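Methods: example folding runs. The two proteins below were folded one after another, and each record is reproduced exactly as written to the output file, sequence line first and structure-token line second.
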Amino acid sequence: MDDILAPLQNAFEGQIVFFAPLPSSFHTTPSIPQYPFARSEPQLPELPANYHSPQDFHGQRLADILSTVLLIISGAVSFLTGYIYKDIYLTLWTGLAGTLLTALVVIPPWPMYNQHPEKWLGTARKGGPTVLVDGVKVA
């Protein structure tokens, strides 16, 4: 019994575990999956080879500052609105509207977030520049 409960206890305690298949005595019908729980590692799709995502650390800082300021302002406005009108639903709806406004301002890749793109090194070409570390070619 402990070998069955140990993975569940580890999962609830926040440890990353891979669940082993259940013993065959637990399978009553063939439709029960072999792994009853999702695996811990995410299955992300492969990006195309020509995918390019420019990095702009100034834009990331701007988005972080905007999200913090907008969420603080929307929280204060929603609290004051709810306090003045003594209505918790109005407080929640005002807070939700402020959160959605913040998401609309911060999440899309607006041009103001990509005004200072970083210049990265290109890929190594045959006969092109190489990286030497202590006289040893590493790239």
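Second run, written to the same file directly after the first:
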Amino acid sequence: MTRFFSIILLGAVALLSSPALAAPPLKLVVFDLELDDFSAGGPLAGESAEETERLRKMTRLARELLAASGLFEIVDAGATDEARVAQHWLRKCNGCDADVARAAGADLSFVGLFRKISVMEQVLEFRIRDARSGELVNISQTDLRGETDESWRRALTYLIRYNLVEPELARRGGKTER
């Protein structure tokens, strides 16, 4: 029994001393996800109530997944007076998100958008910027089919895992699972 607890203790010490866990989490502002609608009639009709709710759900999921990774500390930028944040126009502001993130005390900004080409064809894109320099440090995207909670959730989960979390773990020397 003592041997069992010794093995558990050694495993816990090894895990806690791993380089991936030793590095402090990066402070990340995750702005509300946006919809960039190129579908026929979409720009005229505007965002539907269903799309607005889906964007809220996906924003919440993105924040939860990134925080749960242990690599990122989510910083709230909700108190900003930047109109483009409130109006969900960060995708078109040419890097103003870095200024907002820096003012909030973050290291990085995260702008995500669903680009709707049609009901069946969409793209999810993330843009991560260094808050100090404004330089893009990560641009990731994936295509998705169908305008459903499930298709958006799968695309979001895929991009966060394979284009943000696992590469950051690998950079820090931690293990990744495929």
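Comment on the second run: The domain at 24-172 is CATH 3.40.50.10070 (Rossmann fold).
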